Amino acid sequence: MAKSNKYRTNKIKQEHTIIEDILPLLENLAKLSVIKSVIPGRINQRSGSGMEPHLKLKYDTPSGIKILAKNSASIQEVFVVTDDSDKAIKLMKKKKLVK
To answer: Which Pfam family would be a valid example here (predicted)?
Structure first.
């Protein structure tokens, strides 16, 4: 049987590639007790230069929150699974984990 390339490190599911310099930001999110899982998704190329890697809140989803991870060359969808989106968003903002 072939070994699956889907795996988790702590709460982060690494089924897809994670864009450069974003993993430490996702690891900080995963440390929050209100967050059950962090699932990186699709990556798209973007134009930009010299942008520091960061996470940007987008909107609530049925299972939690959608965030965009950005660096100077790429943008990646990230889905955060939580039972309490409002509390998670407040904590993320308080700890300056997202914009």
So the answer is: DUF2103
